[in-house]
Design a protein that fits this description.
The complex is a heterodimer. Chain A is α/β, with parallel strands linked by helices. Chain A has helices at about 45-50, 75-80, 95-105, 110-125, 140-155, 170-185, 195-205, 220-225, 230-235, 235-240, and strands spanning about 5-15, 15-25, 25, 30-35, 60-65, 65, 80-85, 160, 190-195, 205-210, 215-220. Chain B has helices at about 1-30, 35-60, 65-85, 90-110, 115-135, 165-185, 190-200, 200-205, 210-235, 240-245, 245-260, 265-285, 295-310, 320-325; strands at about 145, 240. The chains are: A alpha/beta, B mainly alpha.
Chain lengths: ~240, ~325
């Protein structure tokens, strides 16, 4: 079986700055893959390239057997790529349920169906009780969950989670981890960018480490955390010696 | 949950029907022509502001050039009637369609502009159109067009002896504009528009076609605005560029919605009911020398509203909005 998502030799330059350089990764169906790396490693750029915010300077992106390199974000969403934003982008003047309905409209043309789907997703993500609250009135952890709910309402095959667990309390983060597992259990493939290692590592099946815009290593979480190259990238040369 | 929503929608419809019925019987008791005139204008601006609200309130693309579509509606009807003898009803439809297409043609480049730049572009375009019409000899140039009075009839949509037919037409127009908004609010377009207003990049990531959302909103908005312009041409039976395409119309269409509650179903109606009589009364009782005083009143109102209740007056009546303003 082919991979669900594949990037082939992606390079992205921003007026001279190379944010991604020859990045080739693949994500298999049903996997939870973590995309990690120090600040400025190019994780967000790669995410935005996969979601269609940018078109890569070089290379191609393949999703579900189709070349989607030139497609805009809305078209990729229709193909089955859902995403959240690192800095939450709720529709602030709309209620929680209305936020999710926007997503649900991708696969539902009848309003009643879209509304039902949105309620289902809110129950699934634990926001059911907050359906009629304005998005601007949610607390930060709820806003993160709304991001996930909205993306799930588009019924994606691949869900891109951009630091949804960052900045949460340990309890909230644990709820988030469980949510990600349940999402995967429904058959959705997950690619997540995350900073908090101790939370991500037990969750993901595989981790890809980016550093300076390149893939440094990839593999099982248990291997990654012991890899001298990873430790060097995160902590500097001095700390790698003892590894 | 679903039932609550359906009930709310039905309640809105019943409320609207109640107020429409109430408005319909008012002229039976109010015979004063001056007051009737104000009522016609109030209803017309309620309709116009509702139309403006679709593009600017729901979709968030603040237009300050809607006078263009108003004027196009007025001119299309008047020109078709005086030059070709086409009845105003067809002129009205033609004006609406032309305006919708022009709105999309202008939207094509302008919707690439963000935020304030879009608004500035709309002002400039409307002003250019004004100058073009002032210099277009075939269309009467600065002198305008006198619509010849034939006889009182619904066929030619002319009434010299009574304002009542205009009143009822304006009422129907306001109801149609309200109904269109009501219907669109719970449609894919309504959700797309609000998503585009709140956060275009998030909307895109959820499969929303941002550009075409704006184009759709512009077309519907311009169409309804032009119908209002056609009506106005028939109502005053004389038009010139300044009197149907002047900048003050762009403001007068925006202000009721802003005052009542931008991007809300009831905002434009509420705003028009307060603002238009106030304008007309200040104009006749205070502003002896004409323009100016009414604009000061607007200014004061807008300042008051933005200080005391930025979400518009409509919030005073809705529990949900009250909870929000907390």
């Amino acid at each position: 079986m082919t991979a669900l998502l594949e990037t082939r030799g992606i390079t992205q330059r921003f007026s001279g700055l190379v944010a991604n350089s020859d990045v080739s990764i693949s994500v298999g169906r049903g996997e939870i893959v973590g995309l990690i790396g120090p600040n400025g490693a190019g994780k967000s750029t790669l995410f935005n390239l996969i979601a269609g915010v940018y078109t890569p300077s070089e290379g191609s992106i393949w999703f579900d057997g189709e070349d989607v390199t030139a497609l805009p974000p809305a078209a990729r969403c229709q193909r089955g790529i859902g995403r959240t934003f690192q800095v939450v982008k709720s529709f602030e003047t709309m209620s929680v349920i209305d936020n999710v309905i926007v997503g649900a409209l991708v696969r539902n043309t009848v309003m009643r169906d879209a509304r039902r789907k949105a309620h289902e997703v809110l129950e699934f993500t634990g926001l059911g009780a907050r359906a009629h609250v304005l998005a601007s009135d949610l607390v930060p952890a709820e806003k993160r969950r709304l991001e996930v709910a909205r993306a799930l309402a588009t019924e994606p095959k691949l869900l891109l989670l951009d630091e949804v667990l960052t900045g949460l309390t340990p309890t909230e983060a644990q709820t988030g981890v469980e949510l990600v597992r349940r999402v995967r259990d429904t058959g959705v493939t997950v690619l997540m960018v995350e900073h908090v290692m101790e939370i991500v590592m037990p969750l993901v099946d595989r981790a890809i480490v980016l550093d300076l815009g390149k893939v440094l290593v990839e593999g099982k979480p248990s291997e990654i955390v012991r890899d001298p190259k990873v430790i060097t990238a995160y902590l500097g040369d001095r700390h790698a010696v003892g590894a | 949950m679903d039932k609550d929503f359906a009930n709310r929608r039905r309640r809105e419809l019943i409320t609207a029907a109640f107020f429409a019925a109430l408005a319909a019987v008012v002229p039976l008791f109010v015979k004063d022509v001056y007051v009737q005139n104000i009522m016609v204008l109030t209803l017309m601006y309620a309709a116009l502001s509702q139309a403006w609200n679709i593009l600017s309130g729901y979709c968030g693309q603040i237009s300050l050039g809607h006078a263009l579509y108003f004027g196009l509606g007025a001119y299309t009807t008047a020109l078709l009637f005086t030059k070709f003898g086409v009845l105003p009803w067809f002129g009205m439809l033609a004006g609406g369609v032309i305006s919708a297409f022009i709105a999309m043609a202008l939207g094509y480049p302008c919707f690439r502009l963000g935020g304030h730049y879009f608004s500035i572009a709309t002002i400039v375009i409307a002003e250019i159109a004004l100058v073009l019409f002032q210099n277009w000899d075939w269309a009467g140039a600065a002198l305008g067009i006198d619509i010849p009075i034939r006889h009182d009839s619904w066929v030619t949509f002319q009434f010299t002896r009574s304002k009542l037919p205009y009143f009822y037409f304006a009422l129907v127009l306001a109801c149609i504009a309200w109904l269109v908004t009501w219907w669109l609010e719970d449609s894919k377009w309504g959700y797309w528009w609000r998503a585009v207003k709140d956060n275009p990049s998030a909307a895109e990531s959820l499969g929303v076609d941002v550009f075409n959302s704006k184009m759709g909103a512009a077309a519907v908005s311009a169409f309804l605005t032009a119908i209002g312009g056609s009506f106005y041409a028939q109502f005053v039976s004389y038009i010139d560029p300044e009197s149907v395409m002047g900048f003050q119309f762009s403001l007068l269409m925006a202000l009721p919605a802003v005052l009542g509650g931008i991007g809300t179903l009831w905002g434009p109606v509420l705003g028009a009911v307060i603002l238009i009589p106030l304008t007309e009364l200040t104009r006749s009782y205070i502003g002896g020398s004409g323009r100016g005083v009414d604009l000061i009143v607007y200014g004061a109102l807008i300042v008051l509203i933005s200080l005391a209740r930025p979400q518009g007056l409509v919030g005073l009546f809705s529990r949900q909005a009250k909870a929000v303003s907390r």
